[in-house]
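Help: read this over?
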Amino acid sequence: MIFIAEYQVSIPFTEINWEPINLEMKKFPGLKSKTWLSGLNTHSVGGFYEFDSVENAQNYIDGLLIPFAKQVNGNLSVKLFDGDGTKETSLGMDSPFYNS
């Protein structure tokens, strides 16, 4: 299970203390990987997430992402994707995600 999350906030990425957030996210079961993203000149922050199940992804969204959106007074957008459904095609283009 892969998802993309993005917050629209008025705080630049560099002005948020990410260390405690990184520590907190590691407490959630099923998180396999996270890549941080920061929108150019937009103050949007988010990332690509990989989880071992839809249930664990939803628990993370409900338990960390939604409360964080309230904390920073931001708007949250989340899109869930089925990475397994595209695995064969991704392997056909030598995707490093599946070839690692």
